[in-house]
Design a protein that fits this description.
Helices cover 20% and strands 27% of the residues. By secondary structure, the protein is of the alpha+beta class. It has a seven-stranded antiparallel beta sheet, with no helix packed on it. The protein is globular and about 55 Å long. Residues 71-80 and 93-103 have low confidence and may be disordered.
Length: 219
């Protein structure tokens, strides 16, 4: 049997594509609690191997594997450092989706800071649109979210969009769009960057909440 290693799993999209209507239906398939299923759907819990293997047996390996967002390989077997990967050459204005493709970027190093160890990655900031909250040259810790209907309004998010939204990659404060619930509003914190940018949720490829930052005063 092919092994997955406990992984972040896009359970919501998997359920939609495979016509699994409710969390109770998924509970029957996996033999786990609905509260656990909810945590996996919201990206707060890894999907364990035995659950992925059950899904693979019933729905097929390839069908399951394509919904895995980020494999959490055994670090002791791969001689990787503890902590969260930092990508020096991937700034927040460029595509970071390569981190989740088959040809993954190689981390520059790992940052082991317990308060941010649930994050997806550390990335350098470029540009001044979020100054003074996040300044160019600082490093942000970002955590991917999977449910676009659960957003902490007013918080900063890294948004990665498709071609319909001009392939936008940016950190902005996120606010609700009162006129259209299918959209969100992106807003800079720098008063020199005025105006709101409405973005359709359907045009968002990936969304990451910014949990914190690292500031360097000297090289």
């Amino acid at each position: 049997m092919k092994k997955f290693n406990s992984s972040l799993f896009n359970l919501k999209d998997f359920m939609d594509e495979n016509n699994i209507k409710t969390q109770k239906d998924m509970e029957s398939i996996l033999g786990v609690t609905q509260s656990f299923i909810s945590r996996v759907k919201n990206g707060r819990e890894l999907m364990p191997d035995y659950c992925l293997e059950k899904l693979s047996d019933e729905f097929g390996y390839e069908n399951v594997n394509k919904f895995i967002i980020l494999n959490k390989t055994n670090k002791s077997e791969n001689n990787e450092a503890n902590g969260v990967p930092y990508y020096e050459n991937i700034d927040v204005s460029a595509s970071i989706t390569t981190m989740f493709n088959d040809n993954k970027e190689t981390p520059t190093f790992y940052i082991d800071y317990q308060h941010f160890n649930d994050c997806t990655a550390y990335l350098p900031v470029v540009g001044d649109s979020m100054y003074p909250r996040y300044a160019s040259g600082e490093i942000v810790a970002v955590k991917q979210i999977f449910n676009k209907d659960i957003i902490q309004w007013g918080e900063a998010y890294l948004i990665v969009c498709n071609d319909n939204a001009d392939s936008l990659r940016t950190i902005k404060l996120v606010h609700p769009c009162e006129k259209d619930e299918t959209k969100i509003i992106l807003r800079a914190s720098n008063p020199n960057y005025k105006g709101d940018t409405p973005i359709s949720k359907d045009d968002i490829i990936s969304m990451f909440i910014v949990k914190g930052k690292i500031t360097r005063n000297q090289l």
